[in-house]
From TrEMBL:
The gene is glnD. SUPFAM superfamilies: ACT-like, Nucleotidyltransferase, Nucleotidyltransferase substrate binding subunit/domain, Poly A polymerase C-terminal region-like. Transmembrane segments: none annotated. This is Bifunctional uridylyltransferase/uridylyl-removing enzyme. Modifies, by uridylylation and deuridylylation, the PII regulatory proteins (GlnB and homologs), in response to the nitrogen status of the cell that GlnD senses through the glutamine level. Under low glutamine levels, catalyzes the conversion of the PII proteins and UTP to PII-UMP and PPi, while under higher glutamine levels, GlnD hydrolyzes PII-UMP to PII and UMP (deuridylylation). Thus, controls uridylylation state and activity of the PII proteins, and plays an important role in the regulation of nitrogen metabolism. The lineage of its organism: Bacteria, Pseudomonadati, Pseudomonadota, Alphaproteobacteria, Hyphomicrobiales. Residues 497-621 form the HD domain. Belongs to the GlnD family.
């Protein structure tokens, strides 16, 4: 690719700066070592450094070239170091010329050596000596370093002679990597040339295999730390998968093994094709541009592309919104496409290099050392494919030209034989994507092979992932291609849309194998009884459920339309396609009903049953919902959500099968009460039976058995101690939350008090369950986002919240005081959510349902519940649901006489009051 002109003469006028520093010394009539002169020299250098940085930032905004920006920053730093060195030698440590033993070379290493500096990068320097360090050299080196440090730069440095450099490079791969990119800056150039020669002869030629193995292992460990995904929505652009470090690893290995001076030379060595080299350059330039912008925006060496910074970077790179996608989402989609291309390059290059080196590796057979040989065997029945050294490969470069169905057949065979793929085969797929025609997409055999891959009982996720990495999946399903690398700019979704879909497929496969039976008992049970037809429906529906994301219309409706179009081509019957279409359209319904509706209200179950209409659909929708929530990201699924889904399923199944009646419900309630009693077998029988009668049906049906037993021990202990108020705390490490269970005399403002206490402590409530007992006590369980890493600190924080609640209940503190102490912790400045409030009397026969949606913040629940109490509303139940930065809260309320809110005037007063609370500007004014 062509880079813009570097315009280095506009970055810094080195001669003018030298003249300025010399003039300062002459004007002061003293030596450069004078502290006053040093201070003025430092001030002049600071001014030039800052002015140069501003010029470089302006150039970046103009030409958007990361390559040019890093080279300009490196050039500026080179000149400053040269000037400092010469000033030290000429004006600070004046004297006779340096002896041969006192001459040194200043060498840039690491990224700086590669001419690749970001604004916040470390300056890595090697002061290269001919022999031992002398006092004079030590003085000069210290002067340079202290000036650089006083300029506010982070400097990594070493002072070594050539022999020390070679010895350390042989024993330390990090030092070898830094020296691999060494670049002469100033001083005795012959020293540097000698180092280069020795490094090639003694390190590169001798240790290519060890270096390659070490860098590949280093890469794998780095990927593991970043969860082996390049599709995290807040990526690390330096160290994450698909990042700059992956490109650098590719370059380091190529340079070490092939001993070339630049990545361009790898084309001549046959490592890169010209197309691949151009792709390497484009990816490198884009990632460096993003990193440089990020450093300029944050004013520090920030490499995590967080939500707070993404909108401004998108604006700087001139991305614009289009229907269905905001400007930041378009920018991040481009970012993830680049990360995918980086992954393609590094995976294929490194795998090919591994095989290339393996050819000369020793092997062991029958106790004898023998050279590695290339072993190929045909795949029986499929002459276009071979198994080469345990990897599936194509027989020749024309297999896809002869029959383009072979592109799908490759992955079908990989799944059948459970083989990894030879990099040559994957490269050929990517280069042959033009062969994916409309005819192939409609080919009956090709679609059957794809359906076999999708519904495989082995590992469908890995096969689909490989197809996606090569670009084949998006070519076979053009609508899927639209969501490849697409991120959703919110705090709820952890991955891009395509990554989410593939993870959902993987989660379904694991549920089928029984690997998640404890987390998803009902889904696991249903999966064991699925027919082949139901399995096809379910896998296709999960693959397609978010395929219409990024469009102006509701993605569920648009996705259903896509499912209707694709179903027949994928070999589904008319009825199968109809079911897939329904599942895609309703894939969010069960989750929303379970989390935001009162499941003990019969109207909720009746309305949901009317949508579902059959038990078979209900089972499929439950499994899809479990996979969808689990595939969002780590910690999103939790036992609480599982229990809500199971309760919704149980209630709805009864209604659909004609069993929903007072009698059947009573039997289930009595069964739950009996299980609770049996679980307390160590208690005296009378006490056990009395406790089982303490809870209302809503509690017995909604709370899982293990939680009921914990609550029983907590309530018993509190009652025996004669306490009117108590808090039980436990941490949930997997979910990243802390659970607080509050037992207190029921109070109309108890939820508001709890929420206010949490807000005062900076705790964000992410879930809440509210129950009362038959003896007039409230049993409220809330979950707050975890703040501390250690359980001890987290538990102390939760108990502090509990003490605050107790203070209010005892009259020792008041809610207005708590509001003044409230402090927000969540980083949601980058997001906006339009406030929505509704009052609906059709969702319940007994209550008015107040639905609230808006931007979450610490203290919001407290403000909402306090306002509802001020409006003389009695909260019968509350359902608190957060989706990242978006909160969806539902309150089942009546007026103080127990009636629904019928008056339009009063309904408007409720919506106006709550909308004002949701409005960020209003909230800030209220806080002030």
């Amino acid at each position: 690719m062509r880079h813009p002109a570097l315009k280095l003469d506009e970055v810094i006028d080195a001669e003018a700066l030298r003249d300025t520093l010399s003039a300062l010394t002459k004007e002061r009539g003293g030596e450069g070592s004078d502290p006053a002169i040093r201070a003025e020299v430092l001030a002049a250098l600071k001014r030039e450094l800052a002015a140069g940085r501003k010029r470089i930032e302006a150039m970046l905004l103009e030409d958007r070239s990361g390559y040019a920006c890093t080279h300009r920053l490196s050039f500026q730093m080179d000149e400053i170091i040269r000037i400092i060195h010469d000033f030290a030698v000429t004006h600070v440590y004046r004297g006779a010329n340096l002896s041969e033993g006192e001459k040194m070379a200043i060498v840039a290493t690491g990224g700086y050596g590669r001419d690749a500096l970001a604004p916040g990068s470390d300056i890595d320097l090697l002061f290269l000596l001919p022999h031992r360090q002398t006092a004079r050299i030590e003085q000069i080196v210290e002067y340079i370093l202290y000036m650089l440090w006083d300029l506010g730069l982070k400097v990594g440095h070493a002072t070594r002679n050539i022999a020390e450099c070679i010895r350390l490079a042989k024993s330390d791969v990090t030092i070898a990597t830094a020296m691999l990119e060494a670049r002469f800056i100033w001083g005795e150039k012959s020293l540097f040339k000698e180092l280069e020669t020795r490094f090639v002869e003694d390190v590169e030629k001798a240790g290519g295999r060890d270096f390659t193995a070490a860098k590949l292992a280093e890469r794998d460990e780095r990927h593991r730390k970043h969860h082996n995904s390049r599709y995290k929505v807040e990526p690390n652009i330096k160290e994450g998968k698909g990042s700059l470090r992956d490109l650098q690893t590719l370059y380091w290995i190529g340079k070490f093994v092939y001993r070339v001076d630049s990545s361009r030379d790898l084309v001549g060595k046959g490592v890169f094709t010209q197309r691949e080299y151009n792709l390497f350059q484009r990816c490198d330039d884009f990632l460096w541009a993003v990193r440089c912008h990020l450093h300029f925006v944050t004013g520090r060496a920030e490499d995590r592309l967080g939500f707070d910074f993404q909108p401004e970077i998108a604006e700087r790179l001139d991305y614009h919104a289009k229907p269905g996608l905001s400007s930041v989402e378009r920018f991040m989609k481009h970012y993830f496409l680049v990360a995918k291309e980086v992954g393609d390059l590094t995976r294929i290059f490194c795998a090919a290099l591994e095989l290339e080196q393996a050819k000369t590796a020793p092997g062991i057979a029958a106790g004898l050392v023998r050279p590695f040989t290339r072993r190929r065997k045909a795949v029986k029945g499929y002459p276009d494919f071979v198994i080469e050294n345990g990897r599936l490969n194509v027989a020749d470069a024309e297999v896809f030209e002869r029959d383009n169905v072979n592109m799908v057949r490759l992955f079908w065979l990989g799944d059948r034989e459970e083989l990894e793929y030879h990099p040559d085969a994957l490269s050929l797929v990517t280069r042959s994507l033009k062969l994916v025609t409309r005819e192939l997409r409609r080919n009956e055999e090709g679609n059957q092979l794809f359906l076999d891959i999708l519904t495989s009982r082995k590992d469908p996720e890995i096969q689909l992932r490989r197809m996606n990495e090569t670009g084949l999946l998006g070519r076979l399903i053009p609508d899927f291609r639209k969501v490849v690398a697409m991120m959703q700019f919110n705090m709820y979704h952890h991955f891009t849309v395509d990554e989410h879909l593939l993870r959902c497929i993987g989660h379904l496969a694991e549920i089928e194998k029984g690997h998640f039976a404890s987390d998803h008992p009902l889904a696991t049970e249903f999966c064991q009884d699925l027919s082949d037809t139901q399995r096809r429906i379910l896998y296709v529906a999960i693959l397609l459920h978010d395929i219409a994301k990024g469009r102006p219309e509701d993605h569920s409706i648009a996705g259903a339309r896509i499912a209707k179009k694709l179903g027949p081509y994928m070999g589904l019957s008319k009825s199968e396609t109809a079911t897939v279409r329904w599942l895609v359209r309703e894939h969010l319904t069960m989750s929303m009903v379970a989390q935001s509706r009162d499941l003990n209200d019969r109207k909720t179950i009746e309305d949901f049953a009317e949508v579902v209409q059959s038990v078979d659909r209900l089972k499929l929708l439950l499994i899809l919902t479990v996979c969808d929530i689990s595939g969002v990201g780590p910690g999103v699924w939790n036992a609480w959500k599982g229990q809500l889904l199971r309760q919704l399923y149980a209630e709805t199944e009864l209604l659909l099968t004609g069993g929903f009646s007072g009698a059947s419900r009573a039997r289930r309630i009595e069964g739950a009460r009996q299980r609770l009693s049996e679980g307390l077998s160590e208690w005296p029988e009378a006490e056990r039976e009395a406790y089982a009668q303490l809870h209302y049906p809503a509690y017995l049906l909604a709370v899982d058995h293990d939680a009921q037993l914990r609550h029983a021990a907590f309530i018993r202990k509190t009652t025996e101690a004669g306490e009117r108020y108590a808090v039980d705390v436990r941490t949930l490490a997997f979910e990243g939350m802390t659970e607080m269970t509050v037992l207190a005399i029921d109070h109309p403002r108890l939820l508001s008090i709890i929420a206010a206490a949490c807000a005062a402590s900076g705790a964000n409530i992410v879930d809440a369950q509210i129950f009362t007992t038959t003896d007039g006590r409230a049993l409220d369980t809330i979950r707050i986002a975890r703040e501390f890493d250690t359980d001890a600190d987290e538990i102390r924080r939760a108990h502090s919240v509990g003490r605050t609640i107790g203070e209010v209940l005892k009259g020792e503190a008041h809610i207005p005081q708590l509001k003044k102490r409230s402090r927000g912790r969540r980083k949601v400045r980058a997001f906006s959510v339009s406030p929505e409030v509704s009052v609906d009397n059709t969702l319940s026969n007994e209550f008015s349902v107040v639905a609230v949606e808006g931007l979450d913040r610490t203290g919001l629940l407290s403000d909402l519940t306090h306002a509802l109490s001020d409006l003389n509303l009695d909260i019968a139940s509350a359902h608190i649901t957060t989706f990242g930065e978006r909160v969806v809260d539902t309150f089942y309320v009546t007026d103080l006489t127990g009636a629904q809110i019928e008056s339009p005037t009063r309904q408007k007063r409720i919506t106006d009051r709550l909308c004002a609370i949701l409005n960020p500007a209003s909230a800030e004014q209220a806080a002030a």
